[in-house]
Structures are given as C-alpha cells and as structure tokens.
Amino acid sequence: MPKRQPNAPFPFSSLSLAEKQNLYERAADFITPERRSLFDRLAPLRTRHIAVVLEDIYQSHNAAAVLRSCDCFGVQDVHVVEARNPFNPAGDVAVGSSKWVDYYPHNTIQQTYDHLHSKGYRIVATLPHENDTMIGDLDISQPTALVFGTELTGLTQEAIDGADAYVKIPMYGFTESFNISVCAALSLFSLTERMRRATDIHWQLDDNDLLDLKLAWCSYAIKDGDKVIQSLLPKY
Question: Is CATH 3.40.1280.10 the classification given to domain 47-204?
Fold first, then answer.
C-alpha cells in the first residue's frame, strides 16, 4: 500500500502540468495499452472529497476489506491511527487494492484530526450518538472524513469528543452493530453515490492531482517504477 506522510508533496508536484503530461506519456510506454486505458478511465473517478480514518484497527482482514471498499468506491485516501496497533492489511482480502489507495499514518487521533481540519475536512464519527444523523441524511457538501474505530471497543472517547458530527446506519435486527468492514462499505456506498449525483459538489481531482495520481500508479505498475520514472525526468 502506498504509504505517504500527511504533509509530504507527491514526488512530481513541482513539475508544471505540461511537464507532468509529458512524463506520463513517456512512463506509459512501460505499461500495457490496456493498463494505460484503465488508468485514464479510473483516475477521473477517484475522489478525495470523502476520506476514511481508521483508529487502531488490529485485524488484518478487516483493514484489507476497508481498503478494498475504498478502491471499489473510488475513495483515494485512508488515514490510519497507529497508536497501539500497526496497520497491516491482509493481502489476500485486499486483492491488490492496496496498490491503488493511499495510506497516511498518524501517531494519535488528535494529530489526525488536526491534519484533516487543516485540509478543510469535516470529521464524522461512525457510531450511535445523541446528536447523530442517519447515513442517508448526512451533509456532505464539504470534504468529509469518516472515522471508524477498533473492532471490539469502537472509537476512543478522544475520537468521539473531537468529531464534528456523528452518523449511523439504520438497523432493524437484534444485532446492535455491523462489523467495521461492512459498516465502511455501506457508508462509502451511500455517500459516494450521493456525492456523484450531486451537481453542486466538486468531488473530482483537478488536472494536476490527476496526473500526480496516474504517475504514482505507473510507478507501482512498473518494475522498479520509481527509478524508471526518475530516469525519464527532463534534465536541466
């Protein structure tokens, strides 16, 4: 899974748009036309308008299942709090999705919230709360980060107290909660479907971010991709 530091720029962010496009055209010669077509089709469907926060997930299959859902619904960024449990998604469950979703590690939930607030996100904790909203009614007009807690105890009190809003999924059975991976999948389906239908939400990546993403994907798809793409950079 591509691990990025929260405030670090993408490797090619200093290049102009034209330079990035030229670099991408050259890098694409090292992948199949089918893979290039897939990148060109899927990158415009990715979003950072919705992001995911995972607080101390310890079961690898749950971590992997959340990543798979993020990839399937086009959610590009996952922020992971590793205060107690290192993030270690199971590869067989992720089915390769970990290559295409970006992972940002954080030491504490407060550090995570501070970073997301600085980027303009509204932080929404997923749990029943006296001030909660049903998932289908959640306001997603501004960038929204959904926060999911650990498997047995859920979100810490610090994570709950620091959230801007609370959301829950309607349930009609005896069981009081969904598994975290199911909760994430249902939540992301609901929010991303509404987001894509909305005419007043600018959820797409801009041209620079699109090329940054496609260049990053090329580096994952090419053997020794970072070195190959570095060799293609213009020499000044």
Answer: yes
- What gap in Å lies between CA 140 and CA 161, rounded to an integer? 20
pTM of this structure: 0.90
Q: How far is CA 114 from CA 7, 153, 171, in A?
A: 12, 23, 32
Q: How far apart are CA 47 and CA 94, in angstroms?
A: 19
The confidence band for 91, taking pLDDT boundaries of 50, 70 and 90, is low
SS3 content of the chain, % helix, strand, coil (to 5): 45, 15, 40
Torsion angle of C-alpha atoms 123, 10, 150, 193, degrees rounded to 10: 60
Taking the C-alpha atoms of residue 148 and residue 126, their distance in angstroms, rounded to an integer, is: 6
Extents of the domains making up the chain: 47-204
What would the two tokens of residue 159 be?
């994570």
- Other CB atoms closer than 10 Å to residue 19's CB: what's the count? 14
Q: Minimal CA–CA distance to 98: which of 185, 219, 1, 3?
A: 1
Q: How far apart are CA 65 and CA 62, in angstroms?
A: 5
Beta-carbon neighbour count of residue 182 at 10 Å?
15
CB atoms inside a 10 Å sphere around CB 201: 16
Cα-based distances in Å from 185 to 54, 105, 188, 229: 13, 21, 5, 34
- Tell me the pLDDT tens digit for each residue of 94-143: 455 668 999 899 999 999 999 999 999 999 999 877 778 999 999 999 99
- Per-residue pLDDT reduced to its tens digit, 187-234: 999 999 999 999 999 999 999 999 999 999 999 999 999 899 989 987
